[in-house]
Amino acid sequence: MTENTSHRSESLLTEHFRETRRQLRGLLLKIWGGGFLVVLFGFALAWFFIQPAPPRTIVMATGSDDGAYHRFAMQYRDYLGRQGVTLELRSTAGSIENYRLLESDPEVNLAIVQGGTAPNSIGGGVEIEALASLYFEPLWVFYRGDEMLADLRDLRGKTIAIGRGGSGTESIATLLLDENGIDADSVSTRVQAGGRDAVERLKNGQVDVAMFVLSPQSTLIREMIASPDIHLLSFERDDAYVRRHPFLTAVTLQRGVIDLQHDYPNQDVQLIAPAANLIATRSLHDALIPLLLRAASQTHRGHESLLQPGRLPSTEFIEFPLNQSARVYFEDGPPFLQKYLPFWVASAISRGKILLLPALTLLLPLFRMAPPLYRWRIRSRIYRWYEILRGIESELRNESNLQRLQKNVTTLVQMQGELDDLKSVPLSYMEEFYNLRLHVEFVQRRIQNAIAEREPTTAADDEAPPEPADLSVPSQSATDDPAAAAPHHPDQASDGIAGS
Q: Which of 116-120, 146-150, 320-324, 370-374 has the lowest mean pLDDT?
């Protein structure tokens, strides 16, 4: 009987714990499962507002293979390559062709161009934004002869190399010559020649003047300044050019700055200089712009210009609307994540940060429900014991079966043992835990009292029942003797003796 009782009580407690776990799982499924679906929907909705991942390849229009644009672009390519981005370079004749590629070729979305060379048609089919002005490119006017020239008007009647067709040099040379009256209808001759070709023609006497837009560090410039028969024109009216054309800047080439040993140039020279600009179409991914600007800053600040060093790169001499990401870069510096993480990791985190808003908005209430849920879980374990106690006490009031009461005693004994082994109750719930123990002992005493009332004593079971009195009639032999039959009385005895 004890084994059956133990099995019955164990089954009862186990079933209660199973029911608690089922209810807890159901509650978790309703709260967290529903919350997870809501969060998942929020993520799916936010995904439409996430910018796509940046491409791994950029195509850039540069300039001639021997020009400064191409040389600087190769340094950009090396820097981007270390960040996992491929920069493809397209060699061109110069700035004018770069603009054409930006308009006509959807693969090309980045270029270096010379300030002031944008064609009138630009912007009709494609939106272009400025990223930065990179460095100054002075307009160099070299000429042959013993006569010292002081102004572009003195070039009348000469043969002038104005740069390659489609180059930025051709564009600015044509503009300034026209403004000074040196147009195509005059006796002057314009020749589309630039770079090394123009240098050789000038040295050989094929042209009288050669115009270049190049960096002061260019080997061609050093070669020309060092030539004894070739002179450099100084713009006496440099401020007038700057006032008329905002993309130009007046700069001074200090004496000896090209070569101190040979004192090149041998006097200060006034020049006018457009700025080389880094431009892009709006299709260029915004995440790549800080990376490009870091490459540009590292490249051009590592090759400080001899003209106003430290001033560029900047946003000072741009001709197109400034890209918003570029504005943030120059105001606040590189993005925080890109300072410390690889580009692709930083980009993924930056693009995914928009998902944090719906996640926090939806998960915060769920986290706030965790403490009440935890309290319910702890209390439910205690309340399950009270449910067992209530059932036992109900049987105590309605049950007179002694065997049933003894089974309940066994259940309570087992309950006390399990409560003794229970060690996972937090300290904040110990008051309820000890109240439970007191109530278990209380119900146990009531059951023991009830058993004592219903169970007979052991002494009563051992005594034999008393025999009934003998009320039968006396036998005949006894009645024959009158003396034996007669009751004995003292008076009668004395009377009998006296009568004899």
A: 370-374
